[in-house]
Amino acid sequence: MKKILILGGGFSKERAISLVTARCVYKTLKKRGYKTIICEPDGRLIKKIKNFKPSVVFNALHGRFGEDGYIQAVLEAAKVKYTHSGVLASHIAMDKEISKKIFLKNKLLVPKYIKYKFDKKIDNKKLIFNIKKKLKFPVVIKPKNEGSSVDVYICNQKDFLQKLKKISQYKEILIEEYIGGREIQVAILGKKRLGAIELRPKRKFYDYKAKYSSKAATKHIIPVKLKNKDLNKVMNVALKAHNLIGCKGVTRSDFKFNKGKFYLLETNTQPGMTDLSLVPEIAAYKGISFIELIEWIIKDASIKR
């Protein structure tokens, strides 16, 4: 009987969602007969790993310290098999600026952006002038290294400075051109294209509440109504992004489809595994049950990822 230690909770702003993912995985594995526990990634983690002696650590963490390479480095040091992407790939995917540079260098279409540092005193008029010149309003402002659309805002010129203050706790942020159009998400499993799903949020965009609250009533559309050549194109871009970063296991890439073009927003190395999560929904449509998906992720686990 395999022993699985599930990492859940953590210290990021996505702690609550991580715990939901961890509990969903825990319940499913218990029903299958696995011996499993949920652990916080605290100062006693290494001791817990040594005492429990898991076959695999299932990483159900989301956000900073969980999918940015930090916990992956700890698990590599502990020499225990773990799921999802390794240290470098996790760090690159989480850092939206680094990943964008890699995507751009490899001719993948991403929204134009400006990096903004809060520790530098920049004249607000000059900043707005630069935005008008390089991006045009509306724009999207987002932390450089958060997930799940945490602290992401769409701004017009009138409310830009007000919303900028809301995320002033971050040292660096990205100011991106706003891309309208359809929300398309693509899942990759290993080296294969798993499938795609379209989202139609009733909110302004597919934000944190749209992702995790059933009350938000986001419409999930599968199969995606795209021409075959367009569907193949977006799935190929997702696979290319997955491989360029060096990802392992499962990833989900987020796109906007606007005026016949797919804009890659980001690649997520720790997609959720909750009742509202997209990767399990795509897998189910492809005939892969939740337990089969989780067991595939576990079998894929290794060290030196």
CATH structural fold name of the largest domain? D-amino Acid Aminotransferase, Chain A, domain 1
Which ranges are low-confidence, i.e. pLDDT below 50, for 5 or more consecutive residues? none
Q: What shape does the CA trace take? A: globular
Number of helices: 11
**What is the helix fraction of residues, given as a range?**
25-40%
Please give the CATH architecture of the largest domain.
2-Layer Sandwich
How does the helix and strand content classify structurally? alpha+beta
Care to describe what's here?
It is a single chain. With 305 residues, this protein is of the alpha+beta class. The protein folds into three domains: 3-83, Rossmann fold, CATH 3.40.50.20; 93-108 and 180-299, D-amino Acid Aminotransferase, Chain A, domain 1; 113-177, ATP-grasp fold, A domain (Dna Ligase, domain 1), CATH 3.30.1490. The protein is 36% helix and 23% strand. It has eleven helices and twelve strands. A hairpin with a 2-residue loop joins strand 11 and strand 12.
